[in-house]
Design brief:
It is built from ten helices and two strands, in the order H-H-E-H-H-H-H-H-H-H-E-H. The chain is mainly alpha-helical. The chain has a single domain, classed as Lysozyme. A two-stranded antiparallel sheet has the order 1-2.
């Protein structure tokens, strides 16, 4: 191996190492996760500077913003309204259960989604002792599967992990500014759009599932209200 190749590999290793080896989120670096959730909970449409959001998320969770962008580029190519066939939502493609567990109330709000995705990746890095490949594998396929694999990255996620790391090592990534909204007709495209819009059919195909989820959510809220009424009576 040439000296130039060794130097390049060393620089890539150091850059990746700096992206995730700080174990705990920084303090005093801006609004807290809960503050972000509250401030954007009622926002259903607007525009967002994604690069600025990734920078804030990186500071809060001590992850390189470019690593977060590399994940987002593979997951959705920065489309805030993207929905997969499995029901994963938004820029960081959060599953409904994962989003709820992270405190994300509107997965189509870019700031909530990116903050939620950064928080989740931080959890995966901590869970797998800073092993970035295992953490990315868990982000893609679930931490339970990775744990059952001895904490090692899963073979069927190798393509995903390599694509994320290739984007990360490829240099600074620009996410741009996007317009977003909760509904299908609010979808707009940005400079990040590669021309692959196959996810639009994913979104349409997921609408029945999303409607069912909303009905279940309304029923759960109704049950909770009934319990509160009983407690007030007692």
């Amino acid at each position: 191996m040439s000296i130039e190749a060794i130097s390049s590999e060393t620089n890539n290793y150091e850059r990746l190492n700096n992206a995730y080896m700080i174990r705990q989120p920084a303090s005093g670096t801006g609004p807290s996760f809960n503050d972000t959730m509250r401030s954007s909970a009622t926002v259903s449409s607007g525009s967002a500077d994604l690069d600025a959001i990734f920078e804030r998320a990186g500071r809060i969770y001590n992850i390189s913003p470019d690593l977060l962008k590399a994940v987002a580029k593979v997951e959705s190519n920065f489309h805030p309204n993207a929905v997969s066939r499995a029901g994963a939502m938004g820029i960081m493609q959060l599953m409904p259960g994962t989003a709820a567990g992270l405190g994300v109330t509107n997965a189509f709000d870019p700031e909530q989604n990116i903050m939620g995705g950064a928080r989740y990746l931080r959890q995966m890095l901590d869970r797998f002792d800073g092993d970035v490949r295992a953490a990315l594998s868990a982000y893609n396929a679930g931490p339970g599967r990775v744990s059952r694999n001895g904490g090692e990255a899963l073979s069927f996620t190798e393509g995903y992990v390599n694509k994320v790391l290739s984007n990360f090592h490829g240099g600074s990534i620009t996410a741009g500014t996007v317009s977003y909204g909760r509904y299908f007709n609010d979808v707009s495209y940005t400079s990040a759009d590669s021309g692959d819009r196959s996810w639009l059919s994913d979104f349409a195909g997921s609408l029945p599932q999303m409607l069912l989820m909303k009905i279940i959510e309304m029923q759960m809220n109704s049950i909770s209200d009934d319990k509160n009424d009983v407690n007030r009576i007692v």
